[in-house]
Design goal:
A hairpin with a 2-residue loop joins β11 and β12. The protein is an alpha/beta fold. The protein is built from six helices and twelve strands. The protein has a single domain, classed as Purple Acid Phosphatase, chain A, domain 2, CATH 3.60.21.10. The structure holds manganese (II) ion.
């Protein structure tokens, strides 16, 4: 492997992905990975999903892919589907082909490249990625803030005493690259980098690139006019 290129939440921002990729100019022996949330919110979810598959870009599972998968699994059952989709998500579901569904179902919760761990949300110092409970697996997709006792805080319930998980993380599961919570600029901690810079919200799409034990960030301004 020459370079390891990790993209933040793309959320259907196809045009920005194409432009950012042109800027990075991946070579044959580079590895490209997404932190999840490839789809939903942006205007080109299906186009983005197909492009990623066609260009052999890997991804971990995001909470938005997880929601679609859970919806599809419930659809196979006779009872009413407890997952409510919005119009955008329903549209995505209507346009998924079997290959897309296989791809989504195959997304792992995390991947590791030597000392680099890639996952969508976050983790606690007590987690062992090779031995996760069902609850911890769900938290890996959704973690943002922790309270003073390091308990998970539900989205929207954080207060001034809340601590972002990466500010507490000691690196015991590897140098971790994640998305889910977006920041104006990539959030760089001692043992983690948050690479979601809110492209679908009009900010920018970013990637972190590892080469020869160093890293740098490439970004591209969102094309969405606010
Ligand atoms: Mn996201």
């Amino acid at each position: 492997m020459n370079k390891l290129i990790i993209y933040g939440d793309i959320h259907g921002c196809y045009d920005e992905l194409i432009s950012l990729r042109k800027k990075i100019n991946p070579q044959k022996d580079d590895v490209e990975v997404c932190v999840g949330d490839i789809i939903t919110k942006g205007k080109d979810s299906i186009k983005t999903l197909r492009y990623i598959q066609e260009h052999n870009i890997k991804s971990v599972l995001g909470n938005h892919e997880d929601k679609i998968i859970r919806y599809l699994q419930y659809e196979k059952q006779a009872s009413e589907n407890p997952i409510i989709l919005d119009e955008d998500e329903q549209n995505i579901v209507n346009n998924l082909n079997l290959k897309d569904i296989d791809f989504l179902m195959s997304l792992p919760l995390f991947v590791k490249y030597e000392n680099i761990t890639i996952l969508h949300g976050g983790l606690k110092n007590s987690y062992d990625l090779d031995n996760l409970t069902k609850n911890e697996k769900s938290k890996i997709l959704r973690m943002r803030y922790l309270d003073q006792n390091q308990n998970f805080i539900t989205f929207g319930k954080e207060d001034k005493d809340s601590i972002f998980w990466a500010d507490l993380y000691d690196g015991n599961q590897g140098f971790t690259i994640y998305g889910h919570q977006w920041f104006q600029e990539a959030k760089i901690n001692e043992h983690a980098i948050g690479i979601d810079t809110g492209c679908a919200y009009g900010n920018k799409l970013s990637a972190v690139i590892f080469k020869d034990n160093n890293f740098y960030i490439e970004s591209l301004k969102s094309y969405i006019c606010e």
